[in-house]
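User: Can you predict the 3D structure for this chain?
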Amino acid sequence: MDGAALLGHIGSPSLGKGNLMQRPSFLRALRHLGIGLIAVLGLGVVAAEAEGAPAGWIVEGAEARALLADGALLLDTRDEGLRGERSIEGAMPVAWQTFSQPDLPTKGRLLDDDAELTDRLRALGVSQGVPVVVVADSKAGWGEDGRIVWTLRSLGHSQSYLVNGGIDALLRESVSVQPVRLPGNFTVARTDAYDITRQELAGLIGRPDVVILDTREPREYQGETPYGEARGGHVPGARHLYFRDLVGADGKVLAGDALRERLSALGVGEGTEVVSYCTGGIRSGFVTSVLADAGIKARNYSGSMWDWASGDAQSYPLVSE
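Assistant: Here is the predicted structure, written as structure tokens:
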């Protein structure tokens, strides 16, 4: 579809007012056609995208390679064993624990000290206005790329993206990574738009406009505690969506009808707010990134089960049926 046809398609009454224009995946398609700013009369919406900056939270392999060639920072979330012979010169290795509290039961939560977080991000080369591309092993990892992108977004770096398909997609062709300039100059400007506390989550249980997703393995949802949780079970009313169920056999996240059908079966529709959790906010951080990229209002309960299960059982109940 060329640009003129696409603009004509925007005006279709069947699309509703504004919804399509708010979808990051649609904005990415517009940018590929060279459309950076669109004003559509009658739809009551203006969608703008900074020149050269991808919309959404996820980029394809080719787009990631283009960003890196233009000077984006590459963060590699794979552990040393997974990096192995597929290491990338110029990439900065990073672990989610770098930005999180060190001890249970708050191990999943981000550090409270913004100055400390600023120092740690700068030490990796994170700078203001410089895109950050985050890569993981989509088939063998735990969604660490989504957790790191969620972390960066939560701390105010809006130009941070995970690579759809992970390391396989990024290395499908040769990758040119610019030398990292250390230290970076980014300063944390924290937002609570993508995080939630256990007190807030407790207040959302039973709300018809909120879907709570448990993104752990089925055995964890049913009550097993393999990772040091103080109690077993799941948050009352939480629906089960194992984080890997959002990833296809090719390592790429579900899209289009496949994603819509999966989410619809969980009760996620237009206007739904989604809160995801796991053990320590890693797998649910990935799910939050996928949902946010799809234009859904999504938050990650970063404290997750480590935090929830450590609380009073009456105030923070768990069920296993």
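The longest strand covers residues 210-214. The chain is about 30% helix and 10% strand.
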